[in-house]
Amino acid sequence: MNRESVQNNFQYLQVTVEYKFDKGACVPLRVHTIVISAQHKASTPLEKVRSDLIEHVIKAVVPEDLLDEETLYYLNPCGSFIIGGPQSDAGLTGRKIIVDTYGGWGAHGGGAF
Q1: Are 79 and 46 in contact (CB under 8 A)?
Q2: Given strand 72-75, what is the order of strands in its sheet?
Q3: For each of the chain's 113 residues, which pLDDT tens digit applies?
Q4: b/e code 97-110 from CB counts within 10 Å (16+ = b)
Q5: Residues 98, 106: contact at Cβ < 8 Å?
Q6: Could you tell me the pTM of the whole model?
Q7: Quick check: helix, strand or coil at residue 102?
Q8: Residue 35 maps to which CATH number?
Q9: Can you give the residue ranges of the S-adenosylmethionine synthetase central domain (predicted)?
Q10: Where in the sequence is the domain holding 109, given as residue range(s)?
Q11: Which of 5, 35, 39, 94 could tie 1 with a disulfide, CB 3.0–4.6 Å?
C-alpha cells in the first residue's frame, strides 16, 4: 500500500506530534505518541496485529525521521479487539465529530461536542 492509500483507508488512527513554532510556521519535530485500536479476527494473535500495524501502517504513513526511541506506541492497548461497531463502543466522547468539523488540528476543552 502506498502512503496515500494508507492515509485514506486508516483515518481512525491517532498520532500526537511535537511541534516547534518558527516565525509563524508550525514545524513538526517528532511523533510523540501513536494510538491505534484496530478490530481483528479472533484467530489473529494480538502480537501479529501489533507487528502488522507497525510494518504496514506506521512505517508506511509516518516519516521515519519523525520517529525516535522515545516515541510511544499504544497498539490495541486494551488487548484483543474482536467485537466492533456500535455494540462494542457507542463513541460518545464527541472526538470524531470534532475531527470531522475542524480537521486534525484545533483546541478543544475536552467535553463532548
Answers
A1: yes
A2: 14-22, 25-36, 72-75
A3: 666 776 667 666 677 889 999 988 889 999 999 998 888 999 999 999 999 999 999 998 899 999 999 999 999 998 998 887 777 766 555 556 666 676 666 666 666 65
A4: eebeeeeeeeeeee
A5: yes
A6: 0.66
A7: helix
A8: 3.30.300.10
A9: 14-81
A10: 83-113
A11: 5
